[in-house]
């Protein structure tokens, strides 16, 4: 075989191995769901590495924000927590993690729409590294 073909086989093999390892990693983490009760600022508890938090029906005005605490025994003081929002209503929620401490993290949800209020529940996805 010529060097280009050999290089192509090596690259394809490396990609396949990477995909296999990532699939094993992602399927082995603990995942869960929780639904927020009472209000948008009500704390939730979900002791998993990854999860989805379904908020109450949001009514956050345009260009305003709120925050809530996620209690999670997996979180360490030096953990990195990634978060994103899935949302189908009016407005546009932007999500970020404000702070991380042993056993919890704080999520901030901001409606970045200039005129429309949020009007539906959001699913906040998170992953603890």
Task: Give the secondary structure arrangement, pairings included.
Layout: H1 3-28, E1 31-35, E2 44-45, E3 50-54, E4 65-71, E5 81-86, E6 93-101, E7 104-111, E8 123-128
Parallel strand pairs: 1-3, 2-4
Antiparallel strand pairs: 3-8, 4-7, 5-8, 6-7
List keywords for this structure.
37% strand; alpha/beta; 129 residues; Jelly Rolls
Question: What would your notes on this structure say?
Answer:
The protein is an alpha/beta fold. It has one domain (32-128): Jelly Rolls, CATH 2.60.120. Helices cover 20% and strands 37% of the residues. It has one helix and eight strands; from the N terminus they run H-E-E-E-E-E-E-E-E. The protein has a four-stranded mixed sheet with strand order 1-3-8-5, with no helix packed on it. The protein has a four-stranded mixed sheet with strand order 2-4-7-6, with no helix packed on it. Strand 6 (93-101) and strand 7 (104-111) form a beta hairpin. The chain is globular, with a radius of gyration of 19 Å. It starts with a helix and ends with a strand. The model has no long low-confidence stretch (mean pLDDT 89).
């Amino acid at each position: 075989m010529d060097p280009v073909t050999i290089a192509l086989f090596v690259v394809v093999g490396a990609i396949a191995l990477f995909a296999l390892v990532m699939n094993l990693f992602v399927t082995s983490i603990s995942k869960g769901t929780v639904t927020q009760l009472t209000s948008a600022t009500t704390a939730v508890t979900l002791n998993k590495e990854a999860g989805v938090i379904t908020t109450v029906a949001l009514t956050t005005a345009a260009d305003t924000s709120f925050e809530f605490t996620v209690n999670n025994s997996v979180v360490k003081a030096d953990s990195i927590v990634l978060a994103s929002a899935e949302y189908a209503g009016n407005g546009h929620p932007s999500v970020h993690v404000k702070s991380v401490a042993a056993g919890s993290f704080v999520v901030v949800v901001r409606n970045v729409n200039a005129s429309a209020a949020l009007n539906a529940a959001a699913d906040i996805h998170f992953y603890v590294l």
